[in-house]
């Protein structure tokens, strides 16, 4: 484990390296405890660099066994090697030379899952961001692009399959039952894209013919026996390849494309050139074991990693500060893909819910950072919702500002101009400026400035003058180390809505540039006057979620109800209803705190019923509308003095009021939605299941509905319905005989299926209330649980600490004590996973004083521990700062 050195990396310190690595040839002799790695590097001194400049390579926990330059072994005084660095003190006078390094590593003891490690007897790698330096000494930075040739040797019986990046060029038998394979990748790439896989795996094969007629062999490798679970992933891969040709003109470039699923993986997946490595959770699926959400995630992540081939691999990042260059853009591309494959309207709402649930709290708390950060202590902590999701929203805004055509021209120019390069955000913005002739300098602040901007909006109508006025004021709240903010360019989608939902026409506009339904906010305050507006319209704001901002709108409740029923922009229509729900929940929270039973307007609960039954709306849309704002969302909107128990009570009360008001309507619908034909994971079928399952959630709140959940559970013919019913039973009827029975039945049936057991752990960790901390503590001893497996840890501990508000934030601090213990225990093996877990307390300052003090104690206990990893120390210290 790398302990913290306190070193802070700064963007302004970037400078090109003195040396380049033109060719990288690697030989691996695989063995669990002692793998020998021989690296032959063709090094070139950059022009203008003095011959005396030492060559300094990165390492991380390495043991150097041999070093030679141009065929001659180096003598001790010629170099200095520590586990973390290798310096060639007197490099040759010639500008180009060959350096041979021999290192030895122990994949079986690598529990951090970075570099070369073993996952269920399969050798695999994860090198992003800085894992390659755990394999050999290297210039382990993304602007060093090298051509790789990789030879892998292993015992044939242990590892019949030997894979690396690029195309296979040679293979054969060796003495003593060993064999070898050689791979060559013709595309220069940074070390973080290196990959190797070796083991006994089952294969699903297919092929794809590209637009220009080249045939690509596709392979998905899984644990033997699980091949039948890879069909959906393969289909998603072929659809992704086709879509990238159509939507972005991007064709695949190697003869083979391989995906390997492994069961121990720190993140979702990794885009290694020609050899993507996946967390098996995002590959394996059928209706019996995967939910509709799993299918959608698989489709999106397969696409995401594939799309990286152009946005990430062909054009990579100059340095890790530019991470959003590939991640934000690639998330944008996978969002577009899913929107095209499924329902665009539904997809957009889901994206915004995710952004608000994960990015907004980050941006509004101690871990806030710009989409392109300027400083980091540990880069692994910057694979965040801000870099990914907000990064994607920034690209979305560029598209809104430029329009579809100029955006596409800009993308074409980006690929043309920067192919084969390690680029920056400035390069990216420049292509759009050049393609459109627009000035994006103020817009660029979206990359440089942290924090969620807020727009305060009020409106007035002057019937006599036929003038409608919007007063809009922007503010960006201070964030850590950025107290003063500059004014942003915010593209605000809007609509003036008249009777029946019809757009209201207007004449001249003054006070801001308005084009194609977008107001360009650039100043602190705009007074935007629309002339020729005879009747007062309702104003629909941030249509399509055109900008990732919060809104404070002075709006009549009548207008909100009207928009929730009539807005022609489906996102904004959903938003209007969601705002009504949020407002009602906040009022109810205050009533609960004041000791009063919460009350809700009848027209709100009735509207819920009308939306549920509105056949003109897609079922998936109706399901999203009916799913109440989450407890954490409500907490964020309240802002401070959070008592999670009061929020929970308010939310339950609203759910019950909606269920009571709509009993007949909901039961009728619930019955009509029952799945008849065979299972299909398509979006429309998934939408019907989602609607039916949320109706079940409401109905089960009423005494008449309790039995329904049990029936639903027993008759379920797919995992979506089974898991939904089990959640209702376990969360709504915790401790009941029915819940106990269902949980036990599920456990007995799936005890040997780790990915399905993750759902069981999640459901149990999510049970609201004060008893769950004890349950979760006990479950860490469950035979299916393991502190060494990231999926297990995230399912049990991660769900408890970030998705169970009442359980985790138990008033006596027991949830936090458990959190401290487990974070420290996980950290011993896997600092990255521990650091991610530790972000669960990032909103601690918004809690009421009692919990706040206890949360602080928990964070201080971690911070006070000696020899913390860089990953964990960085998170806790920033959280406490
Ligand atoms: N580039 C990968 C993806 O988004 C994520 C890899 C993250 N790895 C890490 N160690 N933080 O597709
Ligand atoms: Zn990515």
TrEMBL record:
EC number: 3.4.11.2
Residue stretches making up the Peptidase M1 alanyl aminopeptidase Ig-like fold domain: 451-552
Gene3D superfamilies the record matches: 2.60.40.1840, 3.30.2010.30, Neutral Protease Domain 2 (1.10.390.10), Peptidase M1, alanyl aminopeptidase, C-terminal domain (1.25.50.10), tricorn interacting facor f3 domain (2.60.40.1730)
Catalytic function, reaction form: Release of an N-terminal amino acid, Xaa-|-Yaa- from a peptide, amide or arylamide. Xaa is preferably Ala, but may be most amino acids including Pro (slow action). When a terminal hydrophobic residue is followed by a prolyl residue, the two may be released as an intact Xaa-Pro dipeptide
Domain Peptidase M1 alanyl aminopeptidase C-terminal intervals: 558-881
Keywords attached to this entry: Aminopeptidase, Hydrolase, Metal-binding, Metalloprotease, Protease, Zinc
Domain Peptidase M1 membrane alanine aminopeptidase: 232-443
Domain Aminopeptidase N-like N-terminal positions: 102-193
Cofactor(s) this protein cannot do without: Zn(2+)
GO MF, one example: alanyl aminopeptidase activity
First-tier enzyme category under EC: hydrolase
Superkingdom per UniProt: Bacteria
Protein family (similarity comment): Belongs to the peptidase M1 family.
Protein name: Aminopeptidase N
Gene: pepN
């Amino acid at each position: 484990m790398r302990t913290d050195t306190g070193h802070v990396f700064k963007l302004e310190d970037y400078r090109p390296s003195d040396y380049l690595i033109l060719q990288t040839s690697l030989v691996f002799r695989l063995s669990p405890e002692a793998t020998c790695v021989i690296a032959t590097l063709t090094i070139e001194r950059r022009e203008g660099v003095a011959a005396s400049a030492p060559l300094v390579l990165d390492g991380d926990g390495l043991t150097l066994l041999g070093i030679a330059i141009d065929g001659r072994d180096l003598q001790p005084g010629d170099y200095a090697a520590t586990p973390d660095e290798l310096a060639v003190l007197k490099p040759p006078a010639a500008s180009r030379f060959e350096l041979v390094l021999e290192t030895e590593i122990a994949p079986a003891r690598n529990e951090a899952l970075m570099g070369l490690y073993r996952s269920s007897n399969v050798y695999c790698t994860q090198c992003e961001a800085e894992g390659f330096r755990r394999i050999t000494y290297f210039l382990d930075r993304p602007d060093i692009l090298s051509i790789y040739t990789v030879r892998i040797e292993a015992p044939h019986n242990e590892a019949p399959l030997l894979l690396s990046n690029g195309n296979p060029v040679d293979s054969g038998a060796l003495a003593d039952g060993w064999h070898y394979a050689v791979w060559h990748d013709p595309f220069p790439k940074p070390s973080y894209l290196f990959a190797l896989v070796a083991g006994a795996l089952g294969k699903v094969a297919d092929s794809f013919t590209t637009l220009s007629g080249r045939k690509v062999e596709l392979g998905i490798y899984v644990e033997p026996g699980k091949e039948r679970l890879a069909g959906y992933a393969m289909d998603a891969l072929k659809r992704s390849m086709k879509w990238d040709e159509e939507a972005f003109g991007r064709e695949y470039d190697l003869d083979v494309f391989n995906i390997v699923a492994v069961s121990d993986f720190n993140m979702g997946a990794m885009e290694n050139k020609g050899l993507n490595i996946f967390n098996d959770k995002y590959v394996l699926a059928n209706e019996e074991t995967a939910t509709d959400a799993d299918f959608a995630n698989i489709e999106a992540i397969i696409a995401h990693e594939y799309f990286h081939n152009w946005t990430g691999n062909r054009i990579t990042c100059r340095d890790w500060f530019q991470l959003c260059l590939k991640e934000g853009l690639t998330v944008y591309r996978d969002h577009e893909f899913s929107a095209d494959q499924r329902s665009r309207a539904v997809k957009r709402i889901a994206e915004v819910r995710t952004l608000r649930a994960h990015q907004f709290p980050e941006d509004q708390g101690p871990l806030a950072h710009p989409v392109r950060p300027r400083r980091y202590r540990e880069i692994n902590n910057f694979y965040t919702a801000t870099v990914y999701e907000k990064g994607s929203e920034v690209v979305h805004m560029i598209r809104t500002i430029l329009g579809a055509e100029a955006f596409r021209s800009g993308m074409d120019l980006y690929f043309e101009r920067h192919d084969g390069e390690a680029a920056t955000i400035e390069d990216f913005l420049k292509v759009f400026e050049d393609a459109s002739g627009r000035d994006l300098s103020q817009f660029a602040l979206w990359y440089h400035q942290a924090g969620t901007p807020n727009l305060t909006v009020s409106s007035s109508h002057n019937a006599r003058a036929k003038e409608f006025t919007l007063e809009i004021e922007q503010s960006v709240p201070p964030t850590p180390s950025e107290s003063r903010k500059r004014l942003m360019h915010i593209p605000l989608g809007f609509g003036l809505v008249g009777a029946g939902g019809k757009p209201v026409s207007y004449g001249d506009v003054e006070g801001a540039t308005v084009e194609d339904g977008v107001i360009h906010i650039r100043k602190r305050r705009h007074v935007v006057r629309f002339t020729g507006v005879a009747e007062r319209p309702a104003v629909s704001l941030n249509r399509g979620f055109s900008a990732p901002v919060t809104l404070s709108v002075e709006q009549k409740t009548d207008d909100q109800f009207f928009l929730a029923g009539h807005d022609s922009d489906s996102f904004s229509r959903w938003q209007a209803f969601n705002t009504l729900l949020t407002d009602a929940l906040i009022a109810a929270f205050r009533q609960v705190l004041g000791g009063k039973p919460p009350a809700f307007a009848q027209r709100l609960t009735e509207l819920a019923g009308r939306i549920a039954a509105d056949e003109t709306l897609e079922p998936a849309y109706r399901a999203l509308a009916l799913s109440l704002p989450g407890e954490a969302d409500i907490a964020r909107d309240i802002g401070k003095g959070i008592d999670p128990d009061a929020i929970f009570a308010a939310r339950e009360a609203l759910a019950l009021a909606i269920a009571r008001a709509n009993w007949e309507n909901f039961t009728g619908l619930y019955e009509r939605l029952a799945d008849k034909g065979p299972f299909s994971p398509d979006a429309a079928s998934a939408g019907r299941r989602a609607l039916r399952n949320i109706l079940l959630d409401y109905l089960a709140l009423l005494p008449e509905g309790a039995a329904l959940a049990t029936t639903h559970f027993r008759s379920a013919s797919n995992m979506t319905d089974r898991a939904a019913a089990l959640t209702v039973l376990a969360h709504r009827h915790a401790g009941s005989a029915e819940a106990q029975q269902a949980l036990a039945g599920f456990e007995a049936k799936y005890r040997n299926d780790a990915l399905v057991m993750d759902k069981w752990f999640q459901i149990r960790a999510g049970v609201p209330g004060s008893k769950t901390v004890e349950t979760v503590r006990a479950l860490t001893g469950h035979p299916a649980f393991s502190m060494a497996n990231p999926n297990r840890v995230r399912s049990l501990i991660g769900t408890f600490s970030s998705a169970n508000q009442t359980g985790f934030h138990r008033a006596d601090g027991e949830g936090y004590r458990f959190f401290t213990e487990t974070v420290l225990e996980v950290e011993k093996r896997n600092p990255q996973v521990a650091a991610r877990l530790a972000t669960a307390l990032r909103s601690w300052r918004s809690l009421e004083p009692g919990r706040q003090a206890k949360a602080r104690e928990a964070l201080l206990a971690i911070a006070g521990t000696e020899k913390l990893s860089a990953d964990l120390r960085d998170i806790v210290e920033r959280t406490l700062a």
